[in-house]
Design brief:
With about 325 residues, this protein is of the alpha/beta class. It contains twelve helices and 13 strands. It is globular, with a radius of gyration of 19 Å. It binds NADP nicotinamide-adenine-dinucleotide phosphate (NAP).
Length: about 325
């Protein structure tokens, strides 16, 4: 890596990218971020170079990557919405990887998902497998990290389960609730990513925590942390989806998609390998109980709406809404 000046992180004002950036800066690295929110206020106090993550301008994208030692790539979309699809996310990822190769980036550390498969019936897992293949075939040395549900104060799934448990008298679990998840702490993911960035071998590893929960046990843990007395009931998945759509109207968000319900129930968010993260959700959630679910975290605000609240794909704006990420600088 001698002579290479800086690392590049996609999404340093987002969730995982913020912790990777924080870790790199703490190590004394110079860091550049590529982000869809270049004007978002952050806790980095100007210690970060900020460039737009622009897939439509390949030349500028390549120039923003030129000289980068390692690209830490967190870019992906949680669900298809408006003009955004998993297919467009794969194409955007292809553009990013091609630009990184052209720019001479030395290594890619890519955040993927546990159990991706090109044959998956789920677009998320299929798309992730497609991007992994693009990286493996890019010729750029790589590390692929496959996390499960990532927990931390900005983590949407666990926070919003807590929010629902705090605000509604009943919480509906899709199906039996016996399907499992193996949550991993966002700081552990960042540490694994940065360690993989320092390595030189091509590698693929799961980024998973030390505890495995059934979904039902997870909801009960979060309920106890949030001090919720909501009735937790098991309902057919289609009913849970309808209820989440009704609750979604209160918060003007897509709380859960059909694919997410089915993906959860398929048990894809666990690893067959030993845990690589050390932080236990049971302990972390106990220390952060006062923050869990206090505020609803809105995916559409984070990634699909402009400052005026209008959906970007309707008004063509390039500036997503900048609110809705908790300032976690003290946690
Ligand atoms: N969060 C989890 O629980 C979890 C679990 C397993 C795997 N992962 C994977 O981990 C990686 C990071 O996830 P994260 O939750 O930390 O993501 P994030 O910070 O919300 O977003 C990561 C990057 O993707 C961009 N992005 C996200 N949604 C977008 C959209 N709809 N349109 C355009 N750009 C979008 C963000 O843009 P901005 O720069 O504008 O913010 C950011 O650059 C992803 O690859 C994800 O698939 C996450």
């Amino acid at each position: 890596m001698a002579g290479r000046e800086f690392d590049v992180v996609t999404g340093a004002f987002g969730y995982t990218g913020k912790y990777i950036t924080r870790r790199l800066l703490a190590m004394g690295r110079r860091v550049r971020t590529l982000t869809g929110h270049p004007s978002r206020a952050s806790s980095f106090n100007g210690n970060l170079e900020v460039y737009p993550l622009q897939f439509s301008n390949r030349r500028d994208l390549t120039e923003s990557l030129r000289g980068g030692a390692t690209l830490y790539n967190t870019y992906w979309v949680r669900f298809a919405h408006g003009s955004t699809s998993y297919e467009s996310a794969v194409e955007n990822s292809r553009t990013l990887i091609d630009a990184a190769r052209e720019a001479g980036v030395g290594r890619i550390v890519h955040i993927s998902i546990t159990n991706p498969s090109v044959d998956s019936k789920f677009g998320y897992f299929r798309g992730k497998a497609a991007v992994e293949r693009l990286i493996a075939e890019s010729g750029i040395p790589y590390a692929i990290l496959r996390p499960t549900v990532i927990f931390g104060v900005e983590g949407i799934l666990i926070n919003n389960i807590a929010w629902l448990l705090r605000h509604f008298p009943v919480f509906a679990i899709p199906g039996k609730g016996d399907y499992c998840l193996q949550p991993v702490y966002v700081v552990d993911v960042a540490e694994l990513a940065v360690a993989a960035g320092k390595d030189s071998a091509n590698m693929v590893m799961d980024a998973v925590g030390p505890e495995v929960y059934s979904f039902q046990a997870l909801v009960r843990l979060i309920a106890s942390r949030a001090g919720s007395r909501a009735l937790i009931v098991r309902v057919p998945p289609a009913i849970a989806l309808v209820l989440s759509q009704v609750a979604g109207r209160f918060v003007n968000d897509v709380i859960l998609t059909r694919e997410e319900v089915e993906g959860l129930m398929a048990g894809l968010l666990v690893s067959k390998n030993p845990p690589t993260g050390t932080t236990r959700l049971s302990e972390w959630s106990s220390r952060h109980a006062h923050l869990l679910g206090v505020r609803y975290l809105c995916e559409l605000d984070r990634h699909f709406r402009g400052e005026d609240g209008e959906e970007l794909w309707l008004n063509g704006s390039k500036t997503p809404k900048s609110a809705n990420l908790l300032d976690d600088s003290n946690v």
